[in-house]
Design goal:
The protein has helices at residues 5-13, 18-33, 40-58, 71-91, 97-108, 117-129, 146-155, 157-170, 176-188, 193-222, 236-239, 290-298, 304-317, 343-361; strands spanning 256-267, 270-279, 282-286, 320-322, 325-329. By secondary structure, it is α+β, with helices and mostly antiparallel strands. The longest helix is centred in the middle third of the chain and has 30 residues, at 193-222.
């Protein structure tokens, strides 16, 4: 069915649920294919802006159905890791809006040349459901070395002490705006964006702990009469026993054979290389343990919140931990080590790069 821009907009605005969103995404993909290459990025931006506005206004739930046999779940198993890897890789670059959408389309479309309209529609739906859609061009974020972060922290220590006082005061305040107004006041006393950024990192860390405390208290009140112990009431000594992410874990005993090496873009000025290895009957991409070694320099890897975030990143990217290595298994190995010719290998490399990049770039929040 042919459709012009106004008809597509009408279908977007009339969407009432997941199935309607899925339908207009299928139509939208065919509509985008018919655009001139130089016009397509702007049309992609137009589509995602309008579609995301409708979803937020109407509170349409575009999460996948619970039925594992549903077609959308099957498509998610096939394409979600790839889509998330592309979004993660390009959204972090600070590209202008049209360039971001151009790169996203140019990366995804070759994988969908022989895909059905349903699969193509799902990919647009999955991009739409990501929190980074629509894309916004932001200036490059501030990245500080550990030493520079600590120096800045020392310079604004008085403001941090005032922050701690304001947060404690907020425990007895009835409105969040009271704490927010104190934060605004303290920010206004700081001169540079570097000072303000470090201050906000400290605020986010402290407020997250305050939120966790309140949530823990709520959970404790709900289970006060229960005979089962509350796992949130574990002592700090018990929590510290989790050594899952401490370096030095014994790797698998399987014979390991290196098949190929792949140099990848640097992360935080460190060169990065992955190896393709055969372990037992499986073929894996491995970071060679470099990521965990870097994380151990910054994090307290026994901390539950650190572990929680690392596990979430692995799950999101389809990675797993083997010994000290983060790896991704290549499910359909055909023996071709050229990443430009082997789609499964290329997907794996992008997913592993997204995984280790997320892990290493969240470190500033734990200093």
């Amino acid at each position: 069915m042919k459709m012009d821009k106004n008809e597509l907009l009408g279908q977007i605005h009339s969407a009432k649920g997941l199935s309607d969103c899925y339908e207009f995404c299928k139509v939208a993909y065919q509509f985008l294919l018919k655009q001139q290459p130089e016009e397509r990025p702007e049309m992609l931006a137009w589509f995602f802006h309008n579609a995301s506005e409708v979803i937020r206004c109407e509170e349409i739930n575009i999460s996948l159905p619970e039925d594992p046999c549903h077609e959308l779940n099957r498509y998610a198993h096939e394409y979600r890791k790839l889509i998330r890897s592309f979004i993660s890789f390009f959204s972090d670059k600070g590209y202008p809006k049209n360039l971001y959408y151009q790169k996203l389309w140019d990366s995804l479309e070759p994988f969908l040349l022989d895909a059905t309209p349903e699969k193509k529609g799902f990919c647009l739906l999955d991009i739409l459901g990501d929190a980074r859609t629509p894309y916004y061009e932001l200036p490059a974020g501030l990245r500080l070395s550990v030493d520079r972060f600590k120096e800045t922290f020392e310079c604004i220590k008085t403001s941090i002490q005032q922050l701690d006082f304001a947060i404690e005061l907020s425990r007895s305040q009835r409105q969040k705006t009271e704490l927010a107004s104190h934060i605004v006041h303290l920010l206004e006393t700081l001169n540079s964006s570097e000072d303000k950024s470090v201050f906000l990192v400290c605020f986010l860390n402290r407020y997250e702990k305050l939120w966790d405390e309140r949530k823990t208290n709520e959970d404790s009140n709900k289970t006060v009469d229960s005979a089962e112990p509350n796992p949130r009431e574990q002592s700090s000594a018990e929590k510290s026993k989790d050594t899952t992410f401490l370096p030095g874990n014994t790797p698998n005993d399987d014979d390991v054979h290196i098949i190929a090496r792949y140099q990848y873009p640097s992360i935080n000025d460190n060169e990065y290389a992955f190896v393709l290895v055969k372990k037992g009957d499986g073929i894996f991409l491995s970071d060679q343990g470099k990521t965990l070694k870097e994380l151990d320099r910054i994090f307290e890897l026994r901390e539950p919140d650190v572990i929680k975030n690392l596990v979430a990143i692995m799950k999101q990217c389809g990675a797993e931990k083997q010994g000290d290595e983060f790896v991704i298994e290549i499910d359909n190995w055909n023996g071709n080590i050229n990443e430009d010719e082997n789609e499964d290998l290329k997907k794996g490399i992008l997913s592993l790069f997204s995984c280790v990049s997320f892990m290493l770039n969240m470190k500033i929040f734990y200093v």
